[in-house]
Structure formats: structure tokens, C-alpha cells
Amino acid sequence: MTQDEHHQIIATKRPLDHKYMIASEAYHLLGELSRTEDLCHVNAETDNYYVGMWVTGFGFFNVLFPKDTTRELTDAEREYWNKKYIQIGSQPAQKLSV
Fold first, then answer.
1. Which tens digits make up the pLDDT trace of 37-72?
2. Measured at the alpha carbon of residue 93, what is the angle toward residues 38 and 55, in degrees to the nearest 5?
3. Of 30, 57, 71, 96, which has fewest CB within 10 angstroms of its CB?
């Protein structure tokens, strides 16, 4: 995906109720950020993408998660993640509520 393509997609995003999802494929202005299935937080969408960020990692915003490779959490995944705490740098750890 080129930077122009990324900008064009982001320009069409629509707000979405914030939610956690499981994704594997991910694209950012700086390049591909794909990984094995992991937790992401989305807050917008386009026709083909959810827009958000990985919950863990370097904190890139406006990451594009293709809808065909992003899914809702299962009950077991929700239970697993609800037991986790996330800490960024020296900030206090925060409990997830997915």
C-alpha cells in the first residue's frame, strides 16, 4: 500500500463505537504491521477496513485492519484478555476491559 492509498482510505473513515477485535493483517502509513492474530482496538471504519491500533506494540495510530482478516473476539478470548493488564513505558498498568 502506498502512502497516497493510505491517505485516501483514511480520508473516508467513519466513526465507529470503540471496540476490541482480533486481527492479523495491518497496514500503516509507514508500512505493513501484520502479525499473528492479536488484539486490536478499532474506532472507525471504511467500506473495507477497520481503523485503529494494536493494543500492544509501538502505538501506531490510523492502522488499517482489512475487514476480511479481522474478527470479533470469542468468549474464551474475551475472558483471557479481561485478565490482562497493559503498561506503556513508566505509566501505571491498566486493566483491560474488552
1. 999 999 999 999 999 999 988 789 999 999 999 999
2. 20
3. 30
